[in-house]
Design goal:
alpha+beta; 16 helices; transmembrane helix; 11% strand; five-stranded antiparallel sheet; membrane
C-alpha cells in the first residue's frame, strides 16, 4: 500500500520515492527563504512607515491647529479693523460718501449751532450737558467718609466682595474690596485722572482702610467677617447713585456708522426723523461719549467698550447690548462711568493684546469738548500728569492710607504720558482735516 501510495504521487523511476521527496523539498528551500526575507522586509517597511507617518500626522494636525489659531487671531484683528474702519478720514479725501445721504456734498458744510471750528461741540451742546459731579461734591464726600459711621453692610454694588454700605444718617455708598491692591489703585487714580480732565461723569469716591477700631467700621464686625474682608486692606467707597438705567452704544459708533465727525453731526441735523429736542438730546449724549472715549483710551479700561469690541468677533449682536459699567441717570441724561479698576495698571499690562480695540473709537473720533481738548493740550505741553496725580493722592489721604496703598508707579505714568500724546495727535489730525473743510 505504501509503494502504490508513492506511485500515485507520479514517481516512476526505480529510486525510493522518499529520496525524491527530500530532493524536491531541498530544491524548494531557496523559495521559502526568499519568501521569509520578503516578509521581513515588508514588516520592516510597514513599521517604518507607521513610525514616520503617525508623528508626521500629529505634527501636521498641531501645525494646522497652531496656524488656525494664529490665523484666527490675525483675521480677528483684521476683521475688527475692517469693520471699524477709519471712515472719518474718507470724507476729506472724498473717497467715501456720507453714510446718510441727507446732503449732497460734505465739502459744503460749515460750522453751525452744534459744531464750532470743525472739531468742537458748540456752546449750545455744552450748555445742555448735565452738571454731574464736580470738585466740590468730591471734596464733600471725602470729608464725609472720614467722619461717617456705618450701620449696615450687605451684598450689592457688583460682584465678588463688593458691598453696599448704609451710614447712620441713611446715606449709602458702594464699597470696592479687592485682593489685588493694583485694582484699588486703578479705581482711585482713574478717579483722580477724571478730575484732572474735568469730567463730571464719575461719582464721588474716597479711599479708606478696613480698620475695625475706626468709627466707620466699628459696628460691623460680623458683617465684615461674613464678607471675608481682611483688616488693614485698602478699599474705595463711592457715593451710591440711585435711578440708574443701562446705557447703549450710540448707533454712530456701531459697525454700520463707525465714526463721529462734523459731517456726521450735519447728517443728524438734516434727519427729518429727529425733531430739535431729540437732536439736542442725542448730541448731548454724544458729547459725553467723546469724553468717555478719551478717558477709556487714556486709562486703557478693559471693562467697558473694549469688552464689546473684543467679543464682537464671536457675537455680532453684542454691540446692541448695554455697554459694560456705563449707566445713565434717569433724571438728568448724565452718563456715569462706573467701575474703573482696570485703568492705568491692569489694562496697561494687557496693551499688547487689546491696544487694537482701545484705538478703534479714538481713531474715529473727531468732535471733542473744547474743555477736554484744552486739558489734553496742557498736559501734553507740561508733561506733568504724574506729578498732578501723586500730589492729589498725597493731599487727600492720611498716613494710614499711604502706608498701605502705593502711589501710581513710574511705568504707568510713562504709558499715560504716551497716551496723552496720542490723544493730542488725534485732535491735531482732526483739526487739520476738518477745521477748514
Amino acid at each position: 500500500m505504501a509503494t502504490s501510495s508513492y506511485v500515485n504521487f507520479g514517481h516512476t523511476s526505480g529510486k525510493s520515492p522518499q529520496i525524491h521527496w527530500d530532493r524536491d523539498f531541498k530544491h524548494k528551500i531557496p523559495v521559502y527563504r526568499n519568501l521569509g526575507l520578503l516578509s521581513a522586509v515588508f514588516a520592516f517597511s510597514v513599521g517604518l512607515t507607521i513610525g514616520i507617518f503617525i508623528p508626521l500626522m500629529y505634527y501636521n494636525v498641531n501645525a494646522k491647529n497652531t496656524t488656525s489659531q494664529n490665523y484666527h487671531q490675525t483675521t480677528s484683528a483684521s476683521l475688527i479693523r475692517t469693520i471699524f474702519l477709519n471712515n472719518s478720514y474718507g470724507y476729506v479725501n472724498n473717497t467715501k460718501p456720507p453714510p446718510v445721504s441727507f446732503v449732497e456734498s460734505p465739502g459744503s458744510f460749515t460750522d453751525n449751532e452744534y459744531v464750532e471750528e470743525g472739531i468742537y461741540w458748540a456752546k449750545k451742546v455744552e450748555k445742555n450737558l448735565p452738571e454731574g459731579y464736580k470738585d466740590q461734591k468730591h471734596l464733600i464726600w471725602s470729608d464725609y467718609i472720614r467722619k461717617a459711621v456705618a450701620v449696615r453692610l450687605e451684598s450689592g454694588c457688583g460682584r465678588m466682595q463688593n458691598r453696599l454700605v448704609t451710614f447712620e444718617d441713611g446715606l449709602k455708598g458702594c464699597v470696592r474690596y479687592r485682593q489685588n491692591t493694583d485694582q484699588i489703585q486703578g479705581e482711585l487714580f482713574s478717579f483722580y485722572l477724571a478730575q484732572i480732565l474735568q469730567l463730571p461723569n464719575l461719582a464721588p469716591s474716597a479711599v479708606s482702610i478696613v480698620d475695625l477700631t475706626s468709627p466707620l467700621w466699628t459696628n460691623l464686625h460680623n458683617e465684615i467677617a461674613s464678607a471675608q474682608w481682611n483688616s488693614n486692606r485698602p478699599i474705595v467707597v463711592t457715593q451710591f447713585i440711585s435711578n440708574l438705567n443701562s446705557a447703549n452704544i450710540p448707533a454712530i459708533f456701531k459697525p454700520l456708522e463707525k465714526h463721529l465727525n462734523k459731517f456726521d453731526v450735519m447728517n443728524m441735523t438734516k434727519n427729518p426723523l429727529l425733531d430739535k429736542n431729540d437732536l439736542l438730546k442725542n448730541l448731548v449724549e454724544l458729547a459725553q461719549w467723546s469724553d468717555l472715549i478719551i478717558f477709556d483710551y487714556l486709562t486703557a479700561n478693559l471693562d467697558r467698550i473694549v469688552n464689546n469690541l473684543y467679543n464682537y468677533q464671536w457675537n455680532v449682536n453684542i454691540m446692541e447690548a448695554p455697554a459694560h459699567n456705563l449707566a445713565r441717570k434717569a433724571d438728568s441724561q448724565l452718563l456715569v462711568f462706573l467701575d474703573n479698576e482696570s485703568g492705568l495698571l491692569h489694562g496697561y499690562r494687557l496693551l499688547k493684546k487689546y491696544e487694537i480695540y482701545h484705538s478703534i473709537l479714538l481713531d474715529n473720533l473727531c468732535v471733542f469738548r473744547r474743555k477736554t481738548a484744552n486739558v489734553i493740550k496742557k498736559l501734553k505741553s507740561k508733561g506733568n500728569i504724574g506729578t498732578l496725580l501723586r500730589d492729589m493722592f498725597e493731599r487727600r489721604n492720611g498716613a494710614s492710607v499711604k502706608d498701605i496703598l502705593p502711589t501710581l508707579p513710574d511705568k504707568s505714568v510713562k504709558i499715560l504720558n504716551e497716551r496723552i500724546d496720542r490723544v493730542h495727535a488725534q485732535i491735531i489730525k482732526c483739526q487739520s482735516m476738518f477745521a477748514k473743510t
